[in-house]
Amino acid sequence: xxxxxxxxxxxxxxxxxxxxxxxxxxxxxxxxxxxxxxxxxxxxxxxxxxxxxxxxxxxxxxxxxxxxxxxxxxxxxxxxx
Length: 81
Description:
Layout: H1 3-8, H2 13-24, E1 31-32, H3 33-42, H4 49-58, E2 63-67, E3 75-79
Antiparallel strand pairs: 1-3, 2-3
């Protein structure tokens, strides 16, 4: 394996949440999963939306999950303050 190959690999989903999403201030306001997916896609990272939801649910020490008031079964995610 070359260094270039390692540096070009996509980071893990948990790493992206902890060190990019949470450090960016993006979740200071509640966001739907599609908005979070776009945040990752804009950085060139592609994750399955279901995997993202599961990872965010497991991070209940730093992520708040609520039902969207306007969209029936949709969750919104924000950073615990």
